[in-house]
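Anyone? Bumping this.
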Amino acid sequence: MSKQIEPFSDPGLPEHIHRKTDTDPFLEKKAERQVAILFLISAVGTVLFIAAYIAIPSDQFIFLPALGSTNAQQLFLGLGLTIATLFIGLGAVHWAKALMPDTEVIAERHEFRSEEIDRKDFIDTVKTQASASGLGRRSAIKKSLGLSLGLVSLSPLLLLRDLGPLPKKSLEQTSWKTGTRLVTDPGNQPIKASDLEVGAVAQVLPELQPEEERTLNNIAKDAVLLIRIRPEEFQLSPERLSWTHEGIIAFSKICTHMGCAVALYEQQTKHLLCPCHQSTFDVPRAAKVLFGPAARPLPQLAITVDSEGYLIAQKPFTEAVGPSFWERSS
Amino acid sequence: MSVEKKAGALANYVDERTGAAKWLKKNLTKVFPDHWSFMLGEIALYSFIILLLTGVFLTFWFDPSQREVLYQGGYQPLSGIKMSAAYASTLNISFDIRGGLLMRQIHHWAALLFMAAIVAHLMRVFFTGAFRKPREFNWIIGIGLLTLGIVEGFLGYSLPDDLLSGTGIRIAEAILQAIPVVGSYLAFFAFGGPFPGELFIPRIFTVHVLLLPGIFLALITAHLMLVWYQKHTQYPGPGRTEKNVVGYPLMPVYMAKAGGFFFIVFGVTAFLAAVASINPIWLYGPYTPAQISAGSQPDWYMGWLDGLVRMSPPLESHLFGHTISWNILIPGLIVPGILFTGMALYPFIESWLTGDKKEHHLLDRPRNAPNRTALGAMSLTFILITLLVGGNDLLATHFALSINDITWASRFAIFTVPPIAFVITKRLCLSLQRHDRELVLHGRETGRLQLMPNGEFVEVHEPISTAKAWILTQHEQPAALEFPTEDSHGVRAPKGALNKLRARMSRAAVEQVAKPTIQDAKEIEHH
């Protein structure tokens, strides 16, 4: 069958149907009134806005169904502004739809390509002008310009160098040293093993030396969780077991995945959970990763007690705390 | 008459000083086609203006500093607590400046709306093929705006320095730190030393209120100028062709409609801000690295990224004393990089596969581009899964499910469900094409039954209007590309494998239900 494909034809723009407001003067007048009323409602909204600003005290709360206890001034300022703006919009749109011309207009499009003669002229001009610079022939200029442009664009990068210091070893270091006392956070009190019951959790920080101040930078690396379980529940290597004290085990609180605080401890299962990405760590097995995107256990801090019976660090952390980084060696 | 006279005098005054009469006449009567889906981009534009207005208000009181202060303001529960000046001044705006909380909430709601409108606008442009030649530049600008919008929004909600936003910054720092070789240097440069330091709030403030808004203004201007110059696309319909644009003139209809619509968007945002609390930072408390609240969620446009990170398996390589965190790099940088690069390049990929180098001003009905529509559905499904996993902790607590099960299910679903969505969507498109063909050839089902003389019941079909028949058949159905794999001497053509792939993709792209022709209709009539 060799028949020519004949598509359906375009019937063209349909005939314009007049709106009722175009033909009925009464309806036209009515639409005009409606637009005016919409604008007037907006004006009332602004009055409400001003009244709320001046007359309602900032600390007055009202109870509303569905919203609960709400600050009255904020609510009425908001509602006033809503009415003030929304009704200008509704008025303008109604005006355009009911009263402004609604005859569809046809505009012609032009192809974006220029006329062939203009294109040729343009391309020729570009060619001539490009060769007039002689870049192609004068390779010394080309190369030296390339070099200087390349070098000059390095200078802003250089200027950004002092945005911060080099990391050096600081990502691997914390304030914990041999013999540093563990103090409660908040409270800053040294603690004894007997202060923690089995099943209890406490957040601790290293004790400050006189003159030292605690910054968020320190806390971001030093925060440690103490958890006490029954010593027989530990499944640790002898070395790691010696890092615990009477069932108390200490872990860095900073997640090894992305640095969030691993704050959720489930007493029944003895799991630690990071609320950011749900990495789950098993406390009796040295915070082994049970689930989630974290790839390493939380670093364990070796603890013991000093002569007065207060908990102290046996030694600094043996690995970097917090999220991984390129230079991290384990 | 006096308005007419005044307008005339003004036009004269302006022209005498600018000589712009010709240009202004052309542009003031510029024709724009009408369709609700063309308002999505408008919503994005208007919420951007709202963001600028409310943002300027907020800067009058916001103190972008991490200097430690003792809070003494109007919110009693935090009285006497140490916090950063940034957090304290945000509390101040929320409790002690009249209208401050309203402006903060409008700003935040407008930001959510801005991103939602951008995404909806992007979907409209994608599914209707509006990105095709000559509009590829505008597509790329749009992808740039989407990307910057995500960054701008993230920086914005990080500024108050509350516990939730600080956690977000911590995660951003970890992503930076995970970059091989230079990661820890980048992190130290960005934060001026170890995390959190005292520099990132002032720094992101400058980026949030100066650098990015400046780039936004430039890109939005270019985006709109291109729309203006290239003229808007239009949906197919009677009288609408590739050579014209049918609609209403800018003055006065679109001035009133678009101007009015700005106020409507403002009104809706103000209403949301008045009745719906958003980001109540006073409940979260000031940021400290050792604390966190359960159920930490980013704003919705970051949720997909968080979801990707959450579903990632615990992969890390330790090589020659160095660490590579695949569990961060893959979901945090590599997958988003592929997604956004792929999106930006899509117009060129599609034109390469279909060999289509023509200008297009008439939009596609999504069903008539089944492969593209299916690809879009597949991508959306992918993002939707990641978005759901971004809230897996909330899903687990609300529906009493195991979080481990949800995460494991998502790890499988992310590979299997999007391809299924592709196949289903493509089949649906083809079915809809078949339905269109039926409609054109056999007319509309009326639901009326007729008793034939022989006792048979038949349903009466009514022919559809010529206008409707035109809409259903106006699209082109191009043939697949053909590539010779070898030349006339039997020598393998260069790029043989690539051409084979291209031909195969092209064949898949043109798989269509043949649209009816006049002949088909006539043949049916003869029966």
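Late reply, but here is one note on the structure posted above: Chain B is about 65% helix and 5% strand.
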